[in-house]
Amino acid sequence: MDKRDRICDKALELFLRDGYEQTPLSRVAKALGLSKAGLYHYFSSKEELLFQIHERQMERTFIPVLEKAEKIADPTERVAFFMREYILHAMTQDPSVRVVVHETQNLARTHRARIDRVWRRGFDLIRNALLEMKAAGKAKDVNMTFATFGALGMCSWIFYWFDYSRQESARELADTYVEIFLRGLSK
Q1: Contact criterion met (CB below 8 Å) for 87 and 174
Q2: Burial (0-12, 13-18, 19+ Cβ within 10 Å), 151
Q3: What are the angstrom distances between the C-alpha of 161 and each of 91, 93, 101, 154, 156?
Q4: What CA–CA distance (Å, rounded) separates 183 from 172?
Q5: 72, 78 contact by CB (below 8 A)
Q6: pLDDT per residue over 64-103, tens digit each?
Q7: I want to staple 174 with a disulfide (CB 3.0 to 4.6 A). Which of 2, 84, 95, 99 is the partner?
Q8: DSSP state of 62
Q9: What phi and psi, each to the nearest 5 degrees, are found at residue 96?
Q10: Are 151 and 181 in contact (CB under 8 A)?
Q11: Domains, in order of start, for the chain
């Protein structure tokens, strides 16, 4: 593990424990045995550090799920796979997603735009699949943009209440959400 990764891991741990706003870079540096100036050698600002944490988490959890889902031809299976895997890999395995999702508003406009492009890719994946289902007569005639926000919202709020010590319930949670969403949308 390189130094930047160690810094990101420690900062993420502190952000998760104390909150982003309440964690000064001096505390991150101290926890790593660095001076604040030493930390600035790797990251020019706290916001850049937060952005790097976002990118790493997206690359580790969200993008692999997207890439696999994009290869699924059947739109119903695509939505089910994406929701299930997003819940299992991004929402219930690692509580650090709280920092990634909740602290997005603290990113600079250019950094946030890069993160938003990845989220948009997930939004488009679901919305396009739902539109395909609707066109094939397999989904109710509802606003698919709203339905997409509903699917993502269901999944993305799990981290606020999920008990990470109960990993055995993650699969049941994912299956339940997929069932509720797809059955409610299906004709």
Answers
A1: yes
A2: buried
A3: 10, 13, 14, 12, 11
A4: 16
A5: yes
A6: 999 999 999 999 999 999 999 999 887 787 777 777 777 8
A7: 84
A8: I
A9: -65, -15
A10: yes
A11: 1-44 (1.10.10.60), 46-185 (1.10.357.10)
